[in-house]
Amino acid sequence: MNRSSNYSTSYKKNKTSGFRKFSQNHKGRKILKRRRKKGRKIL
């Protein structure tokens, strides 16, 4: 709960920077998930 509240306040303060950080994290998570899935399939 604390993390969500802090994230919302920071996001409101800096919408552009917050959006960029969120997009970068989202892309990174997608890549990690894809790599993990490929690794599991190979294993």
Automatic annotation (TrEMBL):
GO biological process, one term: translation
Gene name for this UniProt entry: rpl34
Extent of the signal sequence: none
Presence of the UniProt keyword Ribosomal protein in the record: yes
Protein name per its UniProtKB record: 50S ribosomal protein L34
Keyword annotations: Chloroplast, Plastid, Ribonucleoprotein, Ribosomal protein
Matches recorded under Pfam families: Ribosomal_L34
Chain positions covered by the region annotation Disordered: 1-43
